[in-house]
Amino acid sequence: MQVPPFSLEKQLSDIGQDMEATVLEVLKSGHYIGGPVVKKFENAFAEELGVEHVVSCNSGTDALVLALRALDIGPGDEVITAAFSFFATAEAISNVGAKPVFVDIKLSNYLLDLDQLEQAITPLTRAIIPVHLFGRSIDMEAVNNLAKKYNLKVIEDCAQAAGAFFQDKSVGSWGDIGCFSFFPTKNLGAAGDAGAVSTNNSSLAKRMHELSVHGMPKRYLHSELGYNSRLDAIQAGILNVKLPYLSEWVCKRREIAFRYSDLLKDVEEFILPELRLDNHLEHSWNQYVIRIKGKELVDKSVDIDQKKFKNSRDLIKNMLYDKGVSTIIYY
Predict the structure, then answer these.
(1) What is each CA distance from 235 to 150, 215, 292, in whole angstroms?
(2) In the beta sheet, which residues pair with residue 228?
(3) Which candidate among 19, 120, 160, 220 keeps its CA 20 to 30 Å from the CA of 257?
(4) Euclidean distance between CA atoms 276 and 163, whole angstroms
(5) How large a percentage of the chain has pLDDT more than 90?
């Protein structure tokens, strides 16, 4: 049996018929962009997050760009973010003309190191983009306190963290704006590109919506240069079917993550993800990520030609593949 790094087979067997029915319903309606299906998802996701407004868009990358634009961040501004994240985080900052300023991560959790964050703030700093990487929430209380001290905006990169919490509040509800991706591999995934922004500020929500439809506050009136970044109704329909299952799916992911850690705890070569028993809800486990110690494999007794591998990570990756287990390097 080959174990893939990602599969939708279980979801399709459980709710595939509901998704097919929803897609067919949208096709028959003839209303493919915007409309009641999209609005239904925006309202339902806002309720799920505990925020006043959700504005859907084309992707998680677009969500970051819309957030930055809505906060009037652009040329001459600096935005602090984590040095370890998917390219889109820094790409969005650069795309609005601002300068990404990188702060290193803590190796214990792969999240932006809050002890180094304050040192990176300059008179040009306008915002902080903390990344809830792999599904784990950063300490948003500490981030917000620092932002308040220096009068900075906070944009949460929640692309991998739908279903995660910090304390008793969902990610995406702590900062000025939260940015979500519904790429198919995410915990809440569409059948293609999809994204959303969340906020409690009605003015920001209004502007992000207008920016996502060509900077258009009303039909054929364009008040500024925007984007064509609308969520397709078919994708919204699929997300409407999946959203009620998000909490259940994340709970299952947590169970599996704890099982992995229990079974792998005695493997000396592996550095396992940090588990927080005091607040386990903070992690939605979009990925279970391990590190491999050193450049050389500690156990030299394995029956394999080690010379063709650059390091122990490549060797272990190959050994797992030979056993039918596929893995991915992030990033």
Answers:
(1) 39, 22, 38
(2) 213
(3) 19
(4) 16
(5) 81
